[in-house]
Amino acid sequence: MADITLNKSFLYFLPIVYRELVNELQMPYKYFADKLLFTTILNTYIYVNGKNFFCIRFENTDLSDEIIELFRKSALFIKVEREESGYAIIMDIPVEGLDCYYKFINGKYSKILPIDKTEIIKFADAFLSSQGTVGTKLVESIQQVLDKSPKRAQMIKDMFGLRDHEYNNDWEVSSIIDVDKETYNYGKV
What's the pLDDT band for 5 if we cut at 50, 70, 90? Predict the structure, then answer.
């Protein structure tokens, strides 16, 4: 991947969109990794100009035409926008991912359906674990957030100086999304 800071939609919702693409286009699960398509991704977004769409931004490379053609084959494809540094592919939210989508945007990570949690971890293992220690720790962190792990809860207590009686066990162990960071606005990225 390009040298970037990934937002939460890359970590928690791209796996759901990717699952749909793999199933719909009948491509091998590691197709993007094997073809080095993941190396061109700049970031992902769950809002496009304030509407509920999914957007994948990627660098302009020798692979751009192949990436665009692949996405054009999907029923989720809406359009492609040319940018100075690359392209933005705008897509519908997959119907099978709507439950995950709404829980994700509301910060209810532990409430995501088990089948979607499994997909998120499968994606993270397949594509992030290969990034060495940083990738492995990121996969572990994602798993802790999805499972609302006691280890992650303790980390939050320590971070904010909370005593056990001050901590609400109903709280999620990650913040909700930053809407500004998760919104793609044409011409403003």
Answer: low
